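Apologies for my clumsy wording, but can you show me some protein sequence, whichever is easiest, together with the matching structure tokens, please?
=====
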Amino acid sequence: MRAIKPKIVTIGVYGFDEAGFFLRLQEARVDTFCDIRQRRGVRGATYAFANSQRLQGRLAQLGIAYLYRKDLAPTKSVRSRQVEADRVTKTAKRRRTQLGAAFVEAYENECLSHFQSQSLLDDLEPNAQVVALFCVEREPRACHRALVADKLAKELDLEVEHILP
């Protein structure tokens, strides 16, 4: 059993510049960065700093541990539910403020139902105090990271904070 109950923060990359992104991680005292993206890259020069190798290098410079949990990334079939919902509502991905019901249901069935919250804690260093759940969307409720955070808060009674640009 862990002596320290970590705090969970969530963060997306959209809306941040490189300096602001890493500054916010430091201000939140993040010591563990948990990447929960399926594809660990972001298109375009603006967000190149969030591509896996570059991101991991900068986190290492800051003394922040990097953890990849692909089991928490939505599959292509789950993501397709959101693509369809966005098409119907004519919502651009970067303008979305919440997830569609079909995505939430599919993600809960395909990913969260198999996820044991304690397994995340088991993957952390014993002294981890602030864990950032990371994906790309700006708005937490437009991203699966908020669903993961909700489950961790409910099952493990962890504090959650959403970091916004």
